[in-house]
Amino acid sequence: MARDVIASFPERFEWVLDDLRGLVTPRPVLVDGWGCRPSLVAAVTDPARMIVLVPTDEWRLRQSRQLPRAARIGHQVSDPDLAARNRIERDRLIALDAVAQARALGIRVIEVDGTRPATAIADEVGEHFRAFLPVPAA
Known about the structure:
6 helices; 55% helix
């Protein structure tokens, strides 16, 4: 499953690029999404302008236990528990692939493990991108 999903990312990323080509704005654009793989994004922008946020295995498992939507299987299967475990493993492998790509390209990786509030992570992301943002007028 992971291999098939990873193989689908280039096509998905083309859809993202199509959407971005339709935007006209003088402001920087923040892009996030499943199909935005480090190697694909780095091919069209400076890797210094990127961050990869990735959940730890423990956080992913906690989310699947505590959030009904995180554990939901979208279609009928003969063994829902096995399907849930397979999806968690698929997502783990996809995350490992993203981290490996990011590190090989010198892209910053931030692991999300649930120990820091979202505001702290947002501040870290904001600090990373500060150099790329226009200075606010006084």
